[in-house]
Amino acid sequence: MDYHSRSVYRTVYAIAMIFGLLSIVLVLIWTVKYLGGFAWQEDPLHQFNYHPVCAVIGMIVLYGKGLLLYRTMHYKPKIYLKLLHTLTLVVVFILAVISLKCAFDSHNYRSVPIPNLYSLHSWIGLVTVIFYSAQLLCGFVSFFYPGIKTTYRRQYLPYHQFFGITIFLLAVVSCHSGIMEKVKGSLGKEYLNMPAAGIVANFLGVSITIFSILVVYLAAMPQFKRNPLPEEDKFQLDLQDHVIQLP
User: Fold this and answer.
1) Contacts of 219 (CB under 8 A, 6+ apart)
2) How many CB atoms lie within 10 A of CB 52?
3) How big is the chain by its Cα radius of gyration, in Å?
4) CA angle 192-194-197, nearest 5°?
5) What is the rounded average pLDDT for all residues in the chain?
6) What's the rounded mean pLDDT across residues 169-196?
7) Mean pLDDT of 3-17
8) I need a labelling partner for 147 at 20 to 30 A (CA). Which of 28, 34, 156, 229 fits?
9) Is the pLDDT of residue 246 over 70?
10) Of 59, 45, 49, 36, which Cα lies nearest the Cα of 132?
11) pLDDT digits (tens, 9 = 90+) for 34-86
């Protein structure tokens, strides 16, 4: 990444993080002020409110930051970035599990239970988490298991990157559909009059959209790709010389 590309990256990244932070603030305002705050299984209606908060913080903002770690912290050693990337994605997985639990509990523990997995949002959301879990497992095995050959890791890397971005976009679609489902369910026809709760929810969707567009742009553009550090280049050359000299 040259100086100009680095300047562009930092500027776009800063704007993306502003919208990421704004998304977290908006989902907290929406759930606390307009949806009644938080509770646990004794109050399933308000236990649900953990669902959008964990989803936005985990599957959108933290996941987006995780996708960009190698490019954002390009000056750090690769092993450090690999560990931090994995740790970030594990935290995202934990938040996704909490998010799903709260959604299912909010249906199952009502005085009159609500059926699960009846909506398009629930289908997309569940598929997203399943794909994400498979991606996390495959990535961990491919890049941490010592028995995997370097050649196979290099071959798998483009697929890992592609599915990482694809799953992120699925998470965005899931959040958008979930916001609309909750807004219509909580406001009904009042939503047509643009109440404050509806405006906050709409701005939340717009903020998530802008954040995701900027993240995908930064993750997909080749000019922002991380260049190996000098010591990493030297290690690769030494490794190649060693392989060539083998009988």
Assistant:
1) 67, 68, 71, 161, 164, 165
2) 23
3) 21
4) 115
5) 92
6) 97
7) 95
8) 229
9) no
10) 59
11) 999 999 999 999 999 999 999 999 999 999 999 999 999 999 999 999 999 99
% of the chain at pLDDT higher than 70: 94
- What is the predicted pLDDT for the residue at 233? 56
Q: Taking residues 150-163, what's their average pLDDT?
A: 93
**At a CB cut-off of 8 Å and minimum separation 6, what does 66 contact?**
85, 88, 89, 92
Our CA angle for 132, 138, 141, nearest 5°, is 140
Structure tokens at 80: 């450090």
In the 3-class helix/strand/coil scheme, how is 164-226 assigned residue by residue?
A: HHHHHHHHHHHHHHHHHHHHHHHHHHHHHHCCHHHHHHHHHHHHHHHHHHHHHHHHHCHHHCC
